[in-house]
Amino acid sequence: MSVTLWIVAFLLTVTLAAFQRMTGPSYPKRGEAKGPGDEEIQFRLPRTHGGEGGLEVAVESVAGVEAGFLEWRRYPVNEPWQSMAMDRDGNGRFTASIPHQPPAGKVEYRLVLETVDGMMTIPSDEPVVARFRAAVPAWVLIPHILAMFGSMLVATRSLLEVVRPAAPAPRRSVLVAMGLLIVGGLFLGPVVQKFAFDAYWTGWPFGHDLTDNKTLIAFIAWLPATILAAKQRRIRVAVVVGWIVMMGAFLIPHSLRGSEMDWSEGEIKTGCAGVELGPGASV
Q: How many CB atoms lie within 10 A of CB 15?
């Protein structure tokens, strides 16, 4: 039974983490467009860039497409679009790079293809918004992600245990889940944020960053179960309520209302409705 519960907890946690990741604004914009002769042009356009260098954008080329152009501008700034010709690479794609921007700087961009049937724009509805960030070392990012995932996993395992009839109270699991949350979210999370955007904490009471705030909500939600487990009290209700609130917070698309460069003042602001970075990764 113990192995079965761990498997169920793992599958449920992976599903929740994947949903959070795929609904977040840092997930690449995917789609397809109709090219000349109704031939499909598939695209996968990035919405985040970490480290040095520019943001590389690519789209596949099909018969009848004669040239490609990348148009971009800073976001959200009402300024003229800058256009650059895209090059063909050896893989049959058009490629170009948006120049490097400061951490938390956002750009919006679109692709314009010149075809035998005329001009077409990708995506056809609205430009893609992408955000730049500084590089985050793997030695801090990987433990951060693993600790956050581990916290979700152990908390889910605790939930499955308390709803099982006549099962012993999973006090140790509750405490481990809180320990992983503290390490991953309240210690390593701010370190990741510092590397990426030069600020340790941009949630309440210093800002409105949803990623930081939902970590704080998860901590507060799991705190009653942790206290009761440490005192050897009944924990069933606290675990159920804490898990629901914790997972509800984590399911908020990651990095909404995150750090954003205020181009007019040249400084980073938080609580902006825009783009951003696994489960619980803070960039």
A: 10
| DSSP conformational letter for 203 | S
- pTM greater than 0.85 (yes/no): no
What radius of gyration do the chain's Cα atoms show? 22
User: How far apart (Å, rounded) are the C-alpha atoms in residues 202 and 225?
Assistant: 27
275: left (phi over 0), alpha (psi -120 to 50) or beta: beta
Taking only the tens place, the pLDDT of each residue in 84-98 is 999 988 788 999 999
Instruction: Mark out the alpha helices in 96-208 (DSSP H runs).
Output: 138-162, 171-181, 189-197
Cβ atoms within 10 Å of 249's Cβ, excluding its own: 19
Assess contact for 158 and 224: CB atoms under 8 A. no
Which amino acid does the sequence have at 198? D
Strands (E), the chain: 29-34, 40-45, 48-50, 55-60, 65-75, 82-85, 87-88, 93-98, 106-115, 118-122, 128-133, 258-262, 267-272
Enter the DSSP assignment of 119.
Answer: E
Strands 87-88 and 55-60, sheet pairing:
unpaired
CA 57, CA 76: separation in Å to the nearest integer? 20
| Crossing angle (nearest 10°) for helices 138-162 and 236-250 | 140
Separation between Cα atoms, residue 10 and residue 18, nearest integer Å: 12
**Between the CA of residue 149 and those of 17, 184, 242, what are the distances in Å?**
8, 9, 16
Angstrom CA distances, 96 to 29, 36, 93, 239, stand at 17, 22, 10, 50
pLDDT tens-digit profile of 172-186? 999 999 999 999 999
